[in-house]
Amino acid sequence: MAEQFDSSTEPETAPTNPDQRGRARRFLSQRSATRTPVALSTAVAKTPKSPRPGRSTAHPMRSFLTVTAVAGLVATVAIPAFAAGTGTPAEAVTLQQVAAENAQSLVVASEATPEALARDSYSATTPEEIQSKKDEEAAKAAAAARIAAAAASTASNFSATYSGAIALSIASSGSVVRPLTSFNSFGTPYAGHKGTDYMADRGTPIYAIADGVVVESAESSSGWGVYVKIAHNINGTTVTSLYAHMSYGTRRVTVGQSVTAGQLIGQVGDTGRAFGTHLHLEIYVSGSWVNPESWLQANVS
User: Fold this and answer.
1) d(CA 150, CA 143)
2) What pLDDT score does 180 carry?
3) CA distance linking residue 119 with residue 109, whole number of Å
4) pTM recorded for the entire structure
5) pLDDT in tens, 125-162
6) What is the rounded distance in angstroms from the CA atom of residue 181 to the CA atom of residue 207?
7) Which residues pair with 259 in a beta bridge?
């Protein structure tokens, strides 16, 4: 720092020697030509950075404020969490009350009854299933109407085809009677035929061969047409009799009904797989089929 290009660094007395004065003038002349830029450059290069105002005191204060803010945040989060973890009995009761209020939907569900879920007495659960059930019942009703109409038509012709008296029962001479009072012929028309066909006019009355209970009674079937089946106990032996191809609407007995020997159960027809009016009779003894006519001849007294 010996060389400060400032007016204060010039010598206080001028040199007295001529040579010295000449060198001084040359030096001052050269110095005057370069003083300003050198001084500015040196001033910029050499001027120390002045410290920021208040820097020496700002750091401690800011650190203190930061620590204070962090401590406040910790207290804000920690205190509610601690309080939630160490609830009082009164707070536990409040939680139970809230749970009880939310559980009111269970009370509504418990009031549901099967009747509330019933859909027109159908067990189906989808619209398609319900419609299928309705279509099925409609088909059954239509079939029943057709059968009833056919029965009415057949019944109206009984008087024209059968002129004999139709008694509700016939006196039995023993425990077994013949199902028909009269017939034209009988036989087994084809192999595998498990019954005997008794040829008779349409409307001829058919009677139960013995006391028993009706186990089947149908207005229509694919093979037997209108038929009745009766279970008997004849002298300690289980016997079943079946009467097929009756006329529509002539059945007089229903399932579960008790009958006596010689009781009217229906009338001859040609329903089902039949060619001409006749009674198809089947007899089973202890579950095995027997020839009906041979059995009748052996048991009718």
Assistant:
1) 11
2) 94
3) 18
4) 0.49
5) 788 888 888 888 888 888 777 666 655 555 544 444 57
6) 9
7) 212
